[in-house]
Specification:
heterodimer; A: about 350 residues; Creatine Kinase, Chain A, domain 2; 2 domains; two-stranded antiparallel ribbon; 12 helices; 10 strands; B: about 160 residues; mainly alpha; 7 helices; about 50% helix; flat
Chain lengths: ~350, ~160
């Protein structure tokens, strides 16, 4: 896999297809697994990590030859950052030390991180609200890997993980939602409080501890012990339509009560993105969020959702530098970002790569 | 915020939660030093583990003290080390620290028993292999290559029949 080629494509999860895709960006499930015969990654020696990587890599190749393995420890920092921006590896894997890697599936639906906090972190993503399909795929993958790997398991406590917050099923079920109207109407806080009360977590686009750039929020379970995978998926599947409904209602109210303002805001956002000569990542995310909502509400008709989804990722720092083929400092990135946006948004109907 | 023991401003804030009871304490540096929960002198930096151990021993009684000192026989991590970094050292820790972990799991998950998927394969020699690998890492660090070679042979033999 040539990482430079990826700058011209985007993952399936950005395609904007599938159920409720005007609000749901993608559905994602991850499973944490560890080999029973090694210390956890944080206590493993360099030799142990190399052995773990070898064992897991062999198992992955046997399970699905289409999964492409990348040695993260030999990649340069820009390429690592690039993989984080594409949601294929975590920040933790990016900054970790020693032998580690990631196996990536075609269309970027599947990624298996090796030697992250746990020996294996399996992840499957799909665009739209599609948790059942995602579970089916990841469960199959887990079964297939288990044919040749001994996972650490305790009869009372389930799958054993480095952090006790993941023990049991080791599952995190997450749905990424675009909630600009709830943010504007300031009702988002109410939604968060309700979700926290039922032990669900809300995070930004890039996971734990990140700000919710571009009004994207990831809603996921926190508890992994005492609830089966099916029950965890059901809980999330039951709650997401309610959040979607709140967002739709907030959008409807904005349209009914502040149509002129909303139309102005969306058009200005689109205008700035099409004409600016320097623009920060934060402002880009903010304006793209307005544009995305504008398309879904029929206020912009010459731009496709997949293009906007892709621009959220392709205007990130490492993507810009890979696209430009050179290292860029912040100021230069702001110029390059504006130039890239102008070229992607110039004239007529715009399609995703 | 005022120190719990005198009128000075508190600068050491600790929170410990055992068996469902959360306890917060706030001390000024002087009182914290007297109680052994802060280093005596900035120049003498005690390892975090010993600070926490002192705190736990002073305030939470002997059972916790015994638990705090307990080490996993496989990866050699102590319960206090786990509490200070938040990550366990190996799968066997869940057995070695069962008593300390179960209340913690109960609070975090609202449950202490797994429901859901189970693997078909069950490894039989996990703890033994982790113990050998930990010993190997120590031997390599000490440049004791003779022991390291013996341990590598033992790991190879144990790996052959590690699954039932």
């Amino acid at each position: 896999m040539n990482l430079d080629d990826l700058t011209r494509t985007s993952g399936e999860w950005l395609r904007g297809t599938g159920s409720e895709s005007d609000i749901v960006m993608c559905s994602r499930i991850r499973l944490a697994r560890n080999l029973a015969t090694y210390p956890f990654t944080n206590r493993a020696s360099r030799g142990d990590k190399a052995e773990i990587e070898r064992e897991v890599r062999t198992a992955i190749a046997r399970v699905d030859p289409q999964l492409h393995y990348l040695d993260v420890h030999v990649l340069n920092p820009l390429d690592r950052q690039f993989l984080v921006e594409r949601q294929l590896i975590s920040r933790e894997l990016m900054t970790a030390e020693g032998p580690r890697g990631v196996a990536i599936g075609p269309e970027e639906n599947v990624s298996i991180m090796v030697n992250e906090e746990d020996h294996l972190r399996l992840q499957v993503m799909h665009s739209g609200l599609s948790l059942h399909e995602v579970w089916e795929r990841i469960n199959q993958l887990d079964d297939a890997l288990e044919e040749s790997l001994d996972f650490a398991f305790h009869s009372q406590l389930g799958y054993l993980t480095a952090c006790p917050t993941n023990v049991g099923t080791g599952i995190r079920v997450g749905v990424m939602l675009h909630l600009p109207a709830l943010v504007q109407s300031r009702e988002i806080e109410k939604v968060f409080r309700a979700l926290h009360k039922i032990n669900l977590a809300v995070r930004g686009l890039y996971g734990e501890g990140t700000q919710a750039f571009g009004d994207f929020y990831q809603i996921s379970n926190q508890q992994t012990l005492g609830k089966s995978e099916a029950e965890t998926i059901r809980t999330i599947n039951d709650i997401i339509p309610q959040v979607i409904e709140y967002e739709r209602r907030a959008r409807k109210e904005l349209l009914e009560n502040r149509r002129q303002n909303l139309h102005d805001q969306v058009s200005r956002a689109y205008g700035v993105l099409k004409t600016a000569h320097q623009i920060s990542s934060e402002e880009t995310m903010h304006l793209l969020s307005s544009v995305r909502m504008g398309i879904n509400l029929g206020l912009i008709d010459d731009l496709e959702i997949p293009t906007v989804n892709e621009l959220f990722i392709h205007t990130q720092p490492a993507h810009l530098q890979k696209i430009q083929g050179r290292h860029l400092e912040v100021d230069d990135r702001n110029v390059a970002r504006a130039q890239y946006l102008r070229s992607r948004l110039a004239n007529g109907r715009h399609q995703a790569n | 915020m005022q120190c719990d023991r005198c009128d000075q401003q508190a600068s050491v804030h600790l929170r410990e939660s055992i068996e469902g009871t959360v306890r917060e304490v706030h001390y000024c540096l002087e009182c914290a030093q007297r109680l052994g929960v802060a280093p005596l002198d900035p120049a003498v930096v005690l390892p975090l583990e010993s600070i926490l151990q002192k705190f736990v021993l002073a305030h939470l009684g002997e059972i916790v003290g015994e638990l705090a000192r307990r080490r996993c026989p496989c990866c050699r991590i102590s319960f206090m080390e786990f509490r200070s970094v938040g990550r366990l050292g190996c799968p066997h820790d869940y057995t070695a620290f069962h008593q300390g972990l179960v209340p913690l799991l109960g609070r975090a998950h609202g449950a202490t028993r797994h429901v859901g998927k189970r693997p078909r394969r069950r490894p039989t020699r996990g703890p033994e292999l982790i113990q050998l690998r930990t010993a190997l890492a120590a031997a390599v660090a000490e440049q004791d290559y003779e022991t390291a070679a013996q341990l590598r042979d033992a790991i190879r033999d144990a790996s052959k029949d590690a699954t039932s």
